Amino acid sequence: MKKYICITCGTQYPASSHPPEACIICKEERQYVHPDGQQWTTLEKMQQSGNYSNHFVDEQKGMKSITTIPDFGIGQTAYLIEEQGFRLLWDCIAYLDDKTKNDINEAGGLDAIALSHPHYYTTQVEWAEAFNCPIYIHEDDKQWVQEYTDRIIFWSGESLEISEGLVLYRLGGHFDGGAVLHWTKQSDHQAVLLTGDIIQVVADRKWVSFMYSYPNLIPLPAEIVMNIAEKLKPLKFGELYNAFHREVTGQADLAVQRSAERYVAALEGRLIKD
């Protein structure tokens, strides 16, 4: 029995004698099946290959990024945040090995894992078991969990304080339960918003964008984008980090608002100049 991992998106499935017929996450229109067809691996196979390692970067005081090299699956970045002694992993990456476990444990371990949306669930159960901690997922995305564990806490409502200074907000959009993490940073009160790709930082780092599907370029309706912006209006944050090592630095809260306005203007044909 093996726990098979989809090579395209990194989602791990429960132990079985044969690979699943298809990856549920990739078959859905927000993701895609690789043109060469469905392909599978396992965490053990990845570890034994010697091809992969996790790279840690100190992004700022209290926050490290974790990225797998070379890219695997979607290629997202996870973030390890420490606030007043509480250590939270924001989003997951598929690859996990002994060195990663040792590095994290030597620094203080993990107290919790929180997920923005289903594309980054990956090997979340392996991570939670390795560090003996709970996983926080919004209940609106419960149907997308492929491997269940008692460690998963399905939270409800529009916000959840995991620990002082670390609050999850459900924005929806990309997925119904799409969540972001607001980190108030007690050390210097310069709040940070971590968004996965519920909100995506674009090439011009002064702007962000919003999509139903990024790989398939399916936009969100104007009403949903404005609702996301409205939910964030009460929050102050100077920086915003997405899942691909991009950030907006300086008045990121205002960047989200003006980006939402530009997005809606484009949908309504008001952005195009004669």
Automatic annotation (TrEMBL):
Domain Metallo-beta-lactamase: 75-244
Domain of life of the native organism: Bacteria
Name of the molecule in the record: Metallo-beta-lactamase domain-containing protein
Species the sequence originates in: Jeotgalibacillus haloalkalitolerans
